[in-house]
């Protein structure tokens, strides 16, 4: 249907209509009044399909493919009036840029950063990092940028470099950890990395750290590790069991206990 024919006085600049099929797992990105599978979008006749998808709130980092008439199109595709575009959710597990995964987390995900490090994942995090520095680290160090900031996910530099970023689902750190493990299925090496500074942990004799332990810890634990970078001393405590439950839930395989 050529809606331009019915445009009356609006002639050439009449907005066209694009319908987006948004699958259920991505619908939480839509504005509350629009949480429907089919989102009707007034299209300005200029924007790319990728822009249209982002304009309704869905980051392209969360999209595996865009289909129009059953054919995959790039985000740069210019819609035609009446197009129906199917938004396909990012496939899981999603490939990471490097075989040995590296992440960089935005300033609001400190608790998640500690959990990822406890599972041995190389995780850059600083509570004073700027958006520019996060993007630079993601691109410069082949790190997957994890954030809940949709504005950050829309950065042009990320789009032009293979969308090396992901939106983390969940409001609680444990939910977020589940989401990251489920999404990327990264190889885990629990208890190998310092949760405070990301340095590597090395086995240390109990006698060498005895003076740094409280009496309860001295009594209950015998296996200790020490951070190569910050000298922090660690032992497997109550958090190990909970982390293991999250890993099993996300992957079906055990992460923390051996
Ligand atoms: Zn450390």
Q: What does this protein structure show overall?
A:
Helix content is 27%, strand content 20%. With 258 residues, the protein is an alpha/beta fold. The strands form 3 sheets. Strands 2-1-5-3-4 form a 5-stranded mixed β-sheet, with helices on one face. 30% of the residues are buried. The chain binds zinc ion.
Mean pLDDT: 87
Distance between the termini: 63 Å
Which structural class fits the helix and strand makeup? alpha/beta
Bound molecules: zinc ion
Biggest beta sheet attributes: 5 strands, mixed
CA radius of gyration is 23 Å
Low-confidence stretches: 1-14
Which percent bin holds the helix content? 25-40%
How would you spell out the order of helices and strands?
EEHEEEEHEHEHHEHEHHEEH
What would the principal axes of the Cα set say about the shape?
elongated
The number of distinct helices, counting runs of at least 4 residues, comes to: 9
Strand order of the largest sheet: 2-1-5-3-4
**Would you count the extended β strands for me?**
12
The share of residues in extended strands comes to 15-25%
In short:
The chain is an alpha/beta fold and 258 residues long. 27% of the residues lie in helices and 20% in strands.
Write the layout of secondary structure elements.
Elements: E1 16-21, E2 38-43, H1 49-55, E3 63-68, E4 71-73, E5 84-89, E6 102-105, H2 110-118, E7 122-124, H3 131-140, E8 144-147, H4 150-153, H5 156-159, E9 165-167, H6 173-184, E10 201-204, H7 206-209, H8 215-220, E11 224-227, E12 233-234, H9 238-251
Parallel strand pairs: 1-5, 6-7, 6-8, 8-9
Antiparallel strand pairs: 1-2, 3-4, 3-5, 10-11, 11-12
Helix pairs in contact: 2-6, 6-9
Bound molecules: zinc ion.
